[in-house]
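Hello,

Our lab assistant flagged a job as stuck in the queue for most of the afternoon. It eventually completed. Since we weren't sure the result was trustworthy after the delay, we are filing this so someone can double-check. Below is the sequence as submitted and the structure that was eventually returned. Let us know if re-running is recommended.
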Amino acid sequence: MKTTIKKRPANRESPYTPRTVEDAIAHLERILSADGAYSLFSRTYWRGRVQQVGATRGLTLQQRTRLEILLESLSSPVPGEEPS
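-- returned structure --
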């Protein structure tokens, strides 16, 4: 299933700027690659965080692609977890 990040979802505001968004994406990549997405917070929480970053104006194609990959990873079922 292909997930697409819309440019500016109406219900999401981004606290990031084009200058700070790279650090936010790198942080999400670190956390989500270390199974941090399943420890304290739900996948719904992490999905919201990725979408919040995706609402930042001025994202490059590479940044959007990285965010799409993160969203796809959050859509994968986790053994023992109910779908969110």
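-- support follow-up --
The delay was a queue issue, not a problem with the job. The result is valid. The mean pLDDT is 82. Residues 47 and 71 are 6 Å apart (CA to CA).
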